Amino acid sequence: MKKRFTKIISFVLCFTMLLSCSGVVSFAAEESGVSFGDTIAKGFYNALNGIVEGLVSAICKLYPNPKDWQNLSDYDSDEVGFMAGRDTYQKGAEEGNFWSLGYASLSVLPEDAGEGKYNLGRDLMNKIAEGVYDDQRVRVAVIDDNSGEGAVVMGAVDGMGLTSTDVRAIRAGVLAYCEEIGFDVASINFSATHAHSVLDTQGVSTEFFKKLLLGFAYNAMGKTESVPGMEAADYFKQYFIAQSIEAVKLAIADMESGKLYFDEIDFSEFIKDKRGLIAKEDVPATAALCFVPDSGSEMTYITDITCHATSFSASNGLVGSDYIYYMDQYLKEQTGANLVMVPGAVGQMSRDIEVDTTGMTEWEDMGASAKALGAEFAKLVLAADFSNELDPVLNVTHKEIFITPENSILVLACEIRLVNNKVFLDNNGNALMPSEMGYLEFGNEFAFAIMPAEFYPETFWDDEITNGTTWDGTEWPYDSLSEAVEGVTIYPISITNDALGYVLTDNNFAFMGHIIGEEIADELLSVGKHMGSFLVEEYYEMIADFVK
Q1: Is 227 strand, coil or helix?
Q2: Of 87, 102, 241, 417, which residue is 20 to 30 A from 408 by alpha carbon distance?
Q3: Residue 351 neighbours by CB distance under 10 Å
Q4: Do the Cβ atoms of 451 and 437 come closer than 8 Å?
Q5: Residue 301 and residue 143: Cα distance in Å, rounded?
Q6: Which of 323, 358, 365, 362 is nearest to 343 (CA)?
Q7: Mean pLDDT in the chain?
Q8: Burial class (CB in 10 A: 0-12, 13-18, 19+), 374
């Protein structure tokens, strides 16, 4: 029985992953309708999706829950590290307000990162890093308007994603330090840059099948320790958390007064939608801040970019943080400036750059695209018109949300402790995952919407930019979130304070869509069909409660 159960689990998950990586049928969504053949194909794959979800859901019910899964009645926001932000919304700068900012950047690579013991965070295949190409870093800016309401931390770790559990571990260390030195902080945020060729910051690429098989026994026996072979992965997690805490400490010590400027930057020349749904002219511009210290020391840029960091080949076995590293390097070489790059609504947005590699060595060729893209992005930042000085007004709020996964693959990932997201059970035994979203506003002029998952551009800016493309034939009823606060332009930051997979418009959710065609996304790695509408509605509710 035990052997049969193991075979069933392995078959279902292998089958699902293989389907998600193959191109079987081409489906083109058209405004005017679809062909009969496409309708049949969609019907088949909808049925297949239902079968896969039913099988995985059944496995989840049979699989023992980890011992540390608690009842929802035991949940305590303060205990798990949620921060609500500031208490009041400021409608203008008060007398005595002024901007101050501190910056720090540290490597999160252990000294033995190139010795073949750490996992690359790219997929489920347990790929081990063979060496190091450039670096993997954490970059932090601590910002305050000195109103007495508390500073804001904006951190970014080079990685595919960060779980809420690890972000809150970073917070715990930062808060303990702030209490020790008497520094008031209202909001601590950490994004993952979504680099695809760095060490695994989530756990998704670490011994999947070993965790699947041994996890059953460990959970049944009430064991909470890691399965054998996870020593290096566990060490790396603790190391990048410790380095992130240290970076915040250094940034606090680095704080000085200055002026803060804003501009919108169009990066679309070097970005494309892999699905072909969003035309270049419809790729939304992104936000950029420039802090200029009164002392004349180095400036700091903070910008979001809607582009995947996938310049390195999927077969690459070296650690490299892609264009982010070279964008940072270019800015430092040209001006000495600092950089914090956070991911925008990246969805399926990818690089669009041609590089002549004639005469390059194999080593140079490997990183040529990343270097060229980083330099081009940096040039656009340096060419921006940072003449719009922002008043020293900082507003920030966060809302705690509870996710009910519709996709049982996510539940199974938590059951086998592939990821360490906290899970709580309601009275009916259903899994609930605590997460959060936020709103961070500067100068009463522009803001970041802080989202815990990988937003698609159309989910944030509305589906006009995809010409209303739909999978199920229904409409997406929400307007662009960019205009949710009167007089303020809002830009998305994805994969921040948690990593909950893709978020599309509900009407274009296709679960295993990648097997149908490039223009449909693969929602295998998502919370479920209604995650988009759930987050949008929760966001509007959060804004209404805060901006009064």
Answers
A1: coil
A2: 241
A3: 21
A4: yes
A5: 12
A6: 323
A7: 89
A8: buried
CA-based end-to-end distance of the chain: 60
CA atoms within 13 A of residue 202's CA, in its CB half-sphere: 32
Fill in the DSSP letter of residue 72.
G
Q: Are strands 286-293 and 318-319 parallel, antiparallel or unpaired?
A: unpaired
Angle 339-343-347 (CA atoms, 0-180°, nearest 5)?
A: 155
Domain extent, residue 15, equals 2-76+392-461+472-546
Least confident of 125-134, 183-192, 286-295: 125-134
Q: What angle do CA 208, 518, 448 make, to 5 degrees?
A: 75
Domain count, the chain: 1
Q: Report whether 353 contacts 377 (CB < 8 A).
A: no
More confident site: 460 or 79: 460
Distance of CA 491 to the CA centre of its chain: 14
3-state class (DSSP) for residue 297: coil
Tens digits of per-residue pLDDT, 485-524? 999 999 999 999 999 989 999 998 876 655 555 555 556 6
Place of tokens 């079987």: 24
The answer to whether 524 and 16 are in contact (CB under 8 A) is: yes
pTM confidence score: 0.91
- By DSSP bridging, strand 502-503 and strand 454-455 are parallel
- Rg (C-alpha) for the chain, rounded Å, is 23
Distance CA 285, CA 266 (A): 4
Give the closest residue to 299 by CA, choosing from 179, 384, 424, 229.
Answer: 384
- Crossing angle of helices 323-335 and 362-382, in 10° steps, is 60
* Within a domain: 303: no
CA distance 432 to 284: 33
Q: Which residues pair with 71 in a beta bridge?
A: 425
Residue 105 backbone zone (phi > 0: left; psi -120 to 50: alpha; other: beta): beta
If you search the block for the tokens 């919108």, which residue do you land on? 264
Distance CA(535)–CA(543), nearest Å, equals: 12
Report the distance separating Cα 153 and Cα 342, nearest Å.
Answer: 13
Q: Is 133 within the bounds of a domain?
A: no
Residue 420 is assigned to a structural domain of this protein: yes
Cβ-based neighbour number of residue 495 at 10 Å? 27
Using N-to-C axis directions, what is the helix angle for 2-20 and 208-221, rounded to 10°? 140
Stretch 451-467: mean pLDDT? 94
Query: What count of other Cβ atoms lies within 10 Å of the Cβ of residue 33?
Result: 9
**Is 485 a member of any domain?**
yes
Q: Phi-psi category of 136—alpha, beta or left, where left has phi over 0 and alpha has psi -120 to 50?
A: beta
Helix (H) or strand (E) holding 286: strand 286-293
Give the burial class of 533: count Cβ atoms within 10 A of its Cβ; 0-12 exposed, 13-18 middle, 19 or more buried.
middle
- Whether the CA torsion 379, 382, 388, 390 is positive or negative: it is positive
- pLDDT of the residue at 520: 55
**By the 8 A CB rule, do 44 and 24 touch?**
no
